Structures are given as C-alpha cells and as structure tokens.
Automatic annotation (TrEMBL):
Name under which the protein is recorded: Sodium ion-translocating decarboxylase subunit beta
Membrane topology label: Multi-pass membrane protein
Species the sequence originates in: Blautia segnis
Transmembrane segments: 12-30, 37-53, 73-96, 108-131, 161-187, 207-236, 256-272, 284-304, 347-371, 383-411
GO molecular-function term, one example from the UniProt record: lyase activity
GO terms for biological process, alphabetical: sodium ion transport
Annotated localization: Cell membrane
Record's keyword annotation contains Transport: yes
One GO term describing the cellular component: plasma membrane
Keywords carried by this UniProt record: Cell membrane, Ion transport, Membrane, Sodium, Sodium transport, Translocase, Transmembrane, Transmembrane helix, Transport
Organism lineage: Bacteria, Bacillati, Bacillota, Clostridia, Lachnospirales
Classification via NCBIfam families: Na_pump_decarbB (TIGR01109)
Principal location listed in the UniProt entry: membrane
Keyword Membrane carried by entry: yes
Pfam family of the protein (one): OAD_beta
Length: 416
C-alpha cells in the first residue's frame, strides 16, 4: 500500500509554497474580482502542475512508460511552438476596442507612446540587477500593461521566467486602481488634476474606421516587423467590428473567443509555474521590477502631458497622460474617478479613453521593438545593450505613432 503515500512523501516545501500562491490567486479572483478570467485558472493550474507525479505534466512511469500531460502539451502547442493563444486573444481585444475617441482627437496618440517609458526603464533596472539581456527585456515588457504581449515577448525571447512575468503582468493590471493614483499624485498638483478639458468630438466616418486598422497594420509592419503578429491580429479584430457585415462574428470574438482563449491561456501558462522554476529570489525581483515598470509607465505619460502644456494655451489634464497604458478600459475609468474626486464636475472620460486605446496600439509596437532590439544587441554587455534598447525603442515608438498621426490626418482630409 506504499503507493498510496508516494505523493505525500514526495512533497517539497517549494510545492507547498506554490499551493499557497495558487490559492491566493484564486482568492484574489473570487473575493477581490482581480482579473478572474485569468487569475482563477492560473491559480488552479499552479496547484495542478505542482502535485507530485501530476498527470497534467509529462511523466516517466515505472517501466519507462512515457505519459503525456495535457497542460504541458497545451503549453508546447499553444505558446511555445506558435504563440497562437496570446495572438488569437488579440482578435477578441481588437473587436472590443472603439477607436472613435482616439480618431476624433488624434493628438491623444502621443500619450500611448509616452506611457511606454516604464518598459525601457524596467529593462535597464533588470540589466543592472544582473539578469541576462533577453530576460531583462522580457521582464521590462510587464510595463506594457498587456498580459498577452508580455507572454508572447517572453516566449519569443526564450525567457526562463515566463510564469513569473505572466503573474506579475496580470496582477498589476488588476491593481491599476491602486497603482495609478499613487503614481499620478507623486508628480501632479491638485490644481493640475482639476484641469477641465473641452470635448468636442468630430464625427468619424465609416471609411476612416475601416481604413484605420488596415493602414496601421501596414505602417507598423514596415516600421516594426516583429510587431506584425501582435498588431495585425489586434487590427483584424477591430476590422471585424467596424466592417458592418460581420456583426455575429464581432460579438463572438468579443465574448466567446476572448473568454475561451483567456481561460485556456490562464491554465496553460501555469505550466511555467512549477515550484522548481517559480520559488526563487528572482521571482520576487521580477514582481518588484514589474511594479516599478507600471509606476514609471504612468509617470512617463503624465510628464509628457506636463511637457506639452508648456506650449499649449488650452491645457491638458496631466492625468490623461497616465491613461496611455494598455490596461483598457480600467485605466481610463481610474483617471475619470480621480478627476471627479478632485472636482465632481470634471469629466475627462472620453479623452482618457482615447489615450487608453492609443496605449493598446503603442504597447504592441513596443513589444515588437523589444523583440527586435533584444535579439540584435550585444548580449555580453547587458547594461549598454539595455541603454541602447531604451533609446532606440522609445524613438521607434514615437516615430511609429507620429506616422500613424500623419495617416489619420490624411484619412480625415480625404474623407471630407
């Protein structure tokens, strides 16, 4: 009867820690409502993959028999071999996004670029702390505030920390209502937070709405080829939404596809949360660097808005810059809530929403930039390479966004 106790005897303290991590993620999903569609399956999966001799991961049984585990198979097929799961999720995300507020106020595009600063600041910090370049780049992409992008970039770059990166990315996305107000108050005054902004939306024609995702895909594909999979599927989802002839498919992409892929992605990514890989001091460092990235994203966007105000007669509420992260629509709602806390009559939701969807585009451009630059830089001199990625990455994002701005201006002129 010893076989009945084999599993118990094989338990390690690291596996017990992972059970606690899994239960905590499940608790955060159910009790606090933090990204439940992903944290709940991720938490349950963390328990599954850390059970001794678990049948969900590949095992060699007595007699040399190989037993294939379903979660390990899903990880190899859906993430490692093709990154198909995070990429397919972008179809659903694109179908959810309304670019109308952004297209009616194209200057909001700039805040999406400014709010990617945390990515590159975090890459530099990770490099200074001794992470190899590809791992530092993967950790930095947590600052994209975009879970699928974080997973895809870390997988393409072959990071050893994909599980910790995924947990950090989605956990901090859920904590946007806590992290962003703290960061914004660090660099703004009450007077700045009370600035009112006029909202005079210009109608956006159907032609522009259809042409925009096609043109953005082509431009970004030429400027940052490594972003094509990310931005292409995002814009394909948006084209399904805007074309007007695929209403049922648009609803399916927004609801059934997005929910199903998110569920599968959560439980699949848990394969990389095995105790021997996850319970390390590096995981704690990644969580700290990820938080730093989120804070610096917000600060970068806010400081860009404050810089622009030096040259504008009609001032921008600097909090709008903080909405330029990819956490949509959470960030725009947080900004509106903060504005009304300072002044109950201050409504800046639509401007914040425009900056927020700009962040969705900028984050996938940043993901492609990071992949390309990290692969081409000198892997030996990590800190210098991180500085190079920082300079070229931010310049590349702003260049791509400015080209898209020019495109929108041309489309609006032509459609009149």
């Amino acid at each position: 009867m010893d076989f009945l106790t084999d599993g118990i005897m094989a338990l390690t303290w690291q596996q017990l820690v992972m059970y606690a991590v899994g239960i905590t993620l499940i608790w955060l999903a159910i009790k606090k409502g933090f990204e439940p569609a992903l944290l709940l399956p991720m938490g349950f999966g963390a328990i599954l993959v850390n059970l001794p001799f678990s049948g969900v991961v590949n095992q060699t049984l007595t007699g040399g028999i190989q037993a294939n585990g379903v979660i390990e198979w899903m990880f190899h097929v859906g993430i490692e071999a093709s990154e198909v799961m995070p990429i397919l999720l972008f179809i659903g995300i694109g179908a959810m996004i309304d670019f109308g507020p952004l297209l009616s106020g194209p200057s909001l595009f700039l805040f999406g670029a400014g709010a990617q600063f945390g990515i590159f600041a975090a890459i530099l910090v990770a490099a200074l702390l001794g992470f190899r370049l590809t791992d530092a780049a993967s950790i930095g992409i947590i600052g994209a505030a975009d879970g699928p992008t974080s997973i895809l970039v870390s997988q393409v770059l072959g990071s050893r920390y994909i599980g910790a990166i995924a947990v950090a990315a989605y956990s901090y996305m859920a904590l946007v209502p806590i992290v962003q107000p703290f960061a914004i108050r660090l660099v703004t005054t009450k007077k700045e937070r009370c600035i009112h902004m006029d909202y005079n939306p210009k109608s956006v024609s159907k032609i522009i709405r259809i042409a925009f995702p096609i043109a953005v895909t082509m431009i970004v594909g030429l400027v940052a080829p490594q972003s094509v999979a990310l931005v292409g599927f995002l814009m394909f989802g948006n084209l399904i939404r805007e074309c007007g002839v695929l209403g049922t498919m648009s609803d399916t992409a927004q609801n059934i596809l997005a929910n199903l892929i998110t569920l599968l992605l959560g439980i699949t990514i848990s394969f990389s949360m095995r105790a021997d890989q996850f319970v390390t001091k590096d995981t704690l460092l990644i969580l700290v660097i990820g938080l730093f990235a989120f804070v610096m994203d917000t600060i970068g966007g806010v400081l860009l808005a404050k810089f622009m105000n030096l040259f504008l007669k009609k001032k921008i509420n600097p909090m709008i810059g903080g909405a330029g992260i990819s956490a949509f629509p959470m960030s725009s709602r947080v900004i509106q809530k903060m504005a009304m806390e300072e002044d109950p009559t201050n409504v800046i939701l639509m401007q914040a929403a425009g900056a927020n969807v700009s962040g969705q585009i900028a984050s996938v451009i940043a993901g492609g930039m990071v992949i390309n630059l990290a692969a081409s830089c000198d892997q030996a001199n990590t800190v210098m390479a991180a500085l190079t990625i920082m300079g070229k990455g931010m310049a590349g994002i702003f260049a791509a966004i400015l080209i898209i701005l020019l495109l929108v201006w041309i489309l609006r002129k032509v459609s009149r």
